[in-house]
Amino acid sequence: MSKLSEAVKALINASHAKPGYTPSSAGVQTALTRFASDAAEKKVGLPAWVTLSAAVSATMNCPEAMTQIFHLANSTPTPNSPRTPAQNAELIREVGLKCISFNGIPRSINTLGAFRNSLPADVGAALSTTPTRELTPDNLELRKRDGLALWDSVYLGFERKLLDKLAASHPDLPVHILNGHYSNLLSNPRGVDAPVKVGRVLTSLVAIACLRTQTGVGPQVVSHIFGLRKAYEHGDAHAAGEEPVEGGPWLATEDGNIWMLENIDKLVNVIGGGEGTTFAPGLRAKL
Q1: Averaged pLDDT, 63-84
Q2: Nearest residue to 149 (alpha-carbon basis) of 246, 206, 230
Q3: pLDDT for position 284
Q4: Residue 168 burial by CB count (10 A; 0-12/13-18/19+): exposed, middle or buried?
Q5: What is the dihedral of CA 51, 55, 61, 62, to 10 degrees?
Q6: How confident is the model over 113-168, as pLDDT tens digits?
Q7: Neighbours of 37 (CB within 10 A)
Q8: Which long-range contacts (CB under 8 A, 24 or more apart) does 273-279 make?
Q9: What pLDDT is stored for residue 287 in this prediction?
Q10: How many Å apart are CA 86 and CA 252, to the nearest integer?
Q11: pLDDT digits (tens, 9 = 90+) for 156-189
Q12: What's the CA gap between 248 and 199, in Å, rounded?
């Protein structure tokens, strides 16, 4: 197999190309602590604020922040629903997995790997090693129906019109979105005992956090804000198999929407060192 020349390796790793992770800082820890405290004041529970902040961190390519969220979650009292460190780690990595549908695969590969390596040995040993999304001849059609049902829930009122619009752009675009994402990643796993569930409401929070953090995709932010509202307006947040999300009904209100977007922006600003998103800012100018 051929080898990369030093010139090619140097160009790949040039500082202006920002080839590595986004580092965290003490300022990020302060911002996360403030976010968790504000969430508690608003009666927004741990799963919701961990989901939002972990999705921001994954989108910003900052696994160190994901680890800070893990430790902060472990130190947060949850008397009504006691949680173990392994449960908090499972939640963060499930959020990181679902980020694939909004951010693409590479950042989830890198951030989930670095996050896993940062965990204490006992927590890492307690994490599930059983996949929950294997497709089989027996479950394939059911999973496809699950994906279409989730799509219909998020885009209710425009669901078929939007599929037609996507198909006009490319006939396989709605096929891939439904079967590759909504069916087997974003919808709840079937027939398995998953270690954690990022259900209908938390999945909307993942979408909103990722897309707002990216910038440049305002129409999709609008769609998923409405998708969160529809989860409560039409009862899907309380459907069979769904777990209640503390603070979810408020997050689906006007005030809750504003609070979410403003706090996502604050986290992006501090993780990005005041320079905004790291998702797609373009190549930095060569110095």
Answers
A1: 95
A2: 230
A3: 56
A4: exposed
A5: -30
A6: 999 999 999 999 999 999 999 999 999 999 999 999 999 999 999 999 999 999 99
A7: 12
A8: 273/25, 276/215, 277/59, 277/60, 277/213, 277/214, 277/215, 278/18, 278/22, 278/60, 278/61, 278/62, 279/59, 279/60, 279/61, 279/103, 279/213, 279/214, 279/215
A9: 46
A10: 28
A11: 999 999 999 999 999 999 999 999 999 999 999 9
A12: 12
Rg of the chain over Cα atoms, rounded to whole angstroms, equals 19
Tokens representing residue 22 in the block: 């986004």
**pLDDT over 80 at 282, yes or no:** no
The dihedral over CA atoms of 172, 177, 183, 186, expressed in degrees to the nearest 10, equals: 170
Question: Is there a contact between 112 and 93 (Cβ–Cβ < 8 Å)?
Answer: yes
- The answer, yes or no, to whether residue 283 has pLDDT greater than 60, is no
Tokens of 224: 């998923």
- d(CA 103, CA 206) in angstroms, rounded, equals 11
Does 285 have pLDDT greater than 70? no
Total-model pTM = 0.96
* Tokens at 17, concatenated: 């190309």
The closest of 223, 187, 180, 212 to 202, measured between CA atoms, is 187
Burial of 209 (0-12, 13-18, 19+ CB in 10 A): buried
187: tokens are 């919808």
- With 0-12 / 13-18 / 19 or more C-beta atoms within 10 angstroms meaning exposed / middle / buried, residue 73 is buried
**Token output for 179:** 């079967």
Average pLDDT, the chain: 95
- Cβ pair 153, 234 in contact under 8 A: yes
Mean pLDDT on 246-275: 97
Return the percent helix, strand and coil in the chain, to nearest 5: 65, 0, 35
The whole-angstrom separation of Cα 126 and Cα 146 is: 29
**Structure confidence by residue, pLDDT tens digits, 226-235:** 999 999 999 9
Enter the tokens of residue 266: 């604050």
Please name the residues in contact with 177: beta carbons below 8 A apart, sequence gap of 6 or more.
151, 166
